[in-house]
Sequence to fold (142 residues):
Amino acid sequence: MEEIKIKPVKEGLWVINGRGDGKPHLIGSRCNVCGEIFFPRKDINICSYCQSTDLVDIQLSANGKVYSYTVVMQRPPDYYKGEVPYAIGFVELPEGVRVETLFTGCNFDEIKVGMEVEMVIEKLWEDENGDEIITYKFKPKI
Fold:
């Protein structure tokens, strides 16, 4: 019997316990010249605001507020293999960056703009080998 593997949907999006608080944190980039913050982190080290190449990786806050959202009732094209229906939207983090995310841990009618949420890592789907593909999501903060 093969062992089930857990794989991130994309490498380098988050770190677990990076701040020693036991929580996952998204990895972004900050321009040291203009201060702009990006998520996901910039693979090409150029600030799209000031064109500086002086960018550093940073860990973003694990908490934020719902900026906008919608509930998707119909299965999108092949790239999305998670459950349907699902709630997707943007969370604004204290650093000022807005992160596109799936929402979890509540009924869809409980999600409200301005609601405080926290980041979690959860299964998104299983691949053809039965391995779990995981991603970051945000859930209501209790």
In short: The beta strands are 6-8, 14-16, 24-31, 37-38, 55-59, 63-72, 86-92, 98-103, 116-126, 132-140. Residues 6-140 form one domain. The mean pLDDT is 92. Residues 6 and 113 are 32 Å apart (CA to CA).
